[in-house]
Design brief:
AL/BT2_dom; 8-stranded antiparallel sheet; 5-stranded antiparallel sheet; 236 residues; alpha+beta; single chain; signal; DUF1080 domain-containing protein; Jelly Rolls; globular
Length: 236
């Protein structure tokens, strides 16, 4: 190849690389602020069981929902990490059942489980599970920021066997928990107010708990049957 041709092809290659770089940036920009489906009702792509390279068989798909059929599936964790986000989903708990939605999870072998690092929005049969009466003033009830802050309305949750719609918003150091169209908890995610909440909770001596502003999202295997569907997220 002569020098003139090399110049032509070299310039074309540089232009192509530049265009690819712009395209990648554009795609990333488009994803932020746009709803992305985390579960399409048909496959568990984008998820895995805690510290595993696959989804364990206890997690199944039934009637368009993710279902923990029996204990042993480990918490179901997103492949991707999220910082600021808005998450929407529906959950249905079995009688006497317990589960949770956990965010900012750090998947590291030094931690036993997602709740070692990630705060939890409680999923519970408030009528029958004993955990509803544990903790302080309802901070173990459905919609609560588990063991940290109770929901403002204990009556908004629907009973076991019925679908509840949850929303979790994390943005700029603050969080919100919504249940069935009503905001039930406002909470800090960092700073002195957060530190005070943790210091007055069961997590006060847990290294790393609530210390991260980005991490994975987990659906908890607490050993009880639970279903999740219509899961989507918007990065903020």
């Amino acid at each position: 190849m002569n020098f003139t041709k090399w110049q032509t092809y070299g310039k074309a290659a540089l232009v192509g690389l530049f265009a690819l770089s712009l395209s990648t940036t554009d795609v990333q920009a488009q994803k932020k602020g746009k709803w992305v489906t985390l579960f399409d009702g048909k496959s568990l792509n984008g998820w895995h069981s805690w510290q595993s390279d696959k989804v364990l068989p206890q997690w199944k798909i039934e009637d368009g929902a993710i279902v923990l059929a029996e204990k042993g599936g480990k918490d179901l964790v997103t492949d991707k990490e999220y910082g600021d986000f808005e998450l929407e989903l529906e959950w249905k708990i079995s009688e006497k059942g317990n589960s949770g939605i956990i965010y900012h999870v750090i998947e590291d072998k030094k931690y036993c489980c997602p709740y070692s690092t990630g705060p939890e929005i409680q999923v519970l049969d408030d009528e029958r599970h004993p955990d509803a009466k544990a903790g302080k003033v309802g901070n173990h009830k459905s919609g609560s920021l588990y063991d940290l802050l109770p929901p403002t309305d204990f009556a908004v949750v629907k009973p076991a066997g019925e679908w509840n719609k949850a929303k979790v918003i994390i943005k700029a150091g603050k969080g919100e928990s919504w249940l069935n169209g009503k905001k039930v908890v406002d909470f800090p995610t960092q700073g002195p107010e957060w530190d005070k909440l943790v210091a007055n909770s069961k997590f006060k001596t847990w290294e790393g708990f609530g210390s991260f502003q980005k991490g994975k999202i987990a659906l908890q295997d607490h050993g009880d049957k639970v279903s999740y569907r219509n899961i989507r997220i918007k990065e903020l």
